Amino acid sequence: MSSDQSHRADLQKDPARVSGMFDEVAAGYDRTNTILSVGNDRLWRVATTRALSPRPGQRILDLAAGTGTSSVAIARTGAEVVAADFSPGMIAEGQRRHAEVPGVSFVEADATDLPFEDEEFDAVTISFGLRNVQDADAGLREMLRVTKPGGRLVICEFSHPTSPAVASLYRFYNDHILPPIARLVSSNGDAYDYLNESIRAWPDQPTLAGRIRAAGWTDVAWRNLTLGVVALHRARKPVGDGGA
After folding, report:
1. Is residue 241 part of a domain?
2. Known binding-site positions
3. Among 68, 93, 117, 153, whose Cα sits 20 to 30 Å from the Cα of 59?
4. Distance of CA 121 to CAs 57, 76, 124, 151, Å?
5. For position 221, which CATH number holds?
6. Calculated CA dihedral for residues 29, 45, 163, 236, nearest 10 degrees
7. What Å distances lie between residue 116 and 90, 109, 111, 164, 240, CA to CA?
8. Is 229 left (phi over 0), alpha (psi -120 to 50) or beta?
9. Binding site membership for S-adenosyl-L-methionine: which residues?
10. β-strand partners of 125
11. What is the reported pTM?
């Protein structure tokens, strides 16, 4: 474990510590994710964009956007994408890489207190970020607030494999294979210990669906990706609901 605890978040998810952890890994974040996911991160990104079904001219909020890789993929459809993240390091790296990409803007933002007006976006998406929010339920309510009535929510997040055999292999990978690889390829390998802890503590697919409904979303559904290692949750904002 790193002796510099300020760069290693824990399950209390203190915003300053989580943000600092992501600041430190920003430069190599996308490469590390591709290696640790054995390339599946690209497939998950495609599935998320398809579920979002963006159209030209729509305004879409991509929360926990990191360096903006997912935002750029969405913007290729002609949508206007706001890439929001609470890590200044991630935002800076995203702006450095994608400053010239049309339709993408970067904003530093806390998911529990979004700096946007009510009903500003046609859709909101968050990939592998909701479990890092200190109060995920408050975040879900904020996403509802800034979404237009009838607008969509798409959440891509690590989840729980439904097969005991797959779950066992997944735990073995996370506990014994991922940590040494993370220390080899990442600038802060200890940060990936937090990754394991946060995945284990994260609710399963039906439980998360219930929390999404409790936040005010309707038409909640999910489908598993990679045998349930990841789940894609979808929902809509009720028409006529201001989300307050």
Report:
1. no
2. 67, 85, 110-111, 127
3. 93
4. 11, 17, 7, 8
5. 3.40.50.150
6. 120
7. 20, 9, 11, 42, 19
8. alpha
9. 67, 85, 110-111, 127
10. 62, 154
11. 0.86
Q: What is the pLDDT of residues 125-136, one digit of tens each?
A: 999 999 989 899
Q: How many domains would you assign to the chain?
A: 1
Distance CA 16, CA 13 (A): 8
**Residue type present at position 186:** S
Smallest CA-to-CA distance from 229 within 202, 209, 207 is with: 202
**Residue 226, in any domain of the structure:** yes
Let me know if residue 53 belongs to a domain: yes
Angle value at C-alpha 84, between 191 and 54, nearest 5 degrees: 115
User: Can you give the residue range of the structural domain that contains 202?
Assistant: 5-236
At residue 68, φ and ψ (nearest 5 deg) are: 90, 10
Name every residue whose Cβ is closer than 8 Å to that of residue 168 and which is 6 or more positions away in sequence. none
pLDDT digits (tens, 9 = 90+) for 125-168: 999 999 989 899 999 999 999 999 999 999 999 999 999 999 99
